[in-house]
Amino acid sequence: MIDTDDMSAIEKSIKTILTSIQEDPEREGLLDTPKRVAQSYQFLTSGYDTNLEEIVNGAIFQEGNKGMVIVQDIELYSLCEHHMLPFFGKACVAYIPDKKIIGLSKIPRIIDMYARRLQVQERLTDQISQALWQILNPKGVAVVIQAKHLCMMMRGVEKQNSFMTTSSVLGEFHDSQPTRMEFLELIQKKNQ
Question: What pTM, to 2 d.p., does this model score?
């Protein structure tokens, strides 16, 4: 949690930025902007204040299921660490249990924990898969993220229709091509 002194420092910095781009921070529409931006950053970087154990909170259950578990279309929003502009998209998470499953709502919470930090999509994808690997000790984990990056859409090359796909596969998803292909076929069927 960003403390009061840091919130004040962010507000002061935003006023400096406004002045530097030749805006008037005392203009009616901008009077509360520094405070709102500070509050936004507090929320958008709240992942630094959470940890995996708090999120999971004991929601791991003994279960004999050995079939693939897939959760798709999990919305995510993050800030690119290079330009502090948003990137957003959807994650698909799969795992093959080895006597343990996780409460369904915990998967999006894990994603949010890592997404609400300054990020690159490649690291975010790996952090999610490593977290599930760590807490479940499953037979395999697969994470695929597709996201649009405003740093590429609004500035630089300005390619509005581009998106990035990243994947991280561990265990059977990495070692077994038939398992990986089954996963890819299952997630493609949903998208058809």
Answer: 0.93
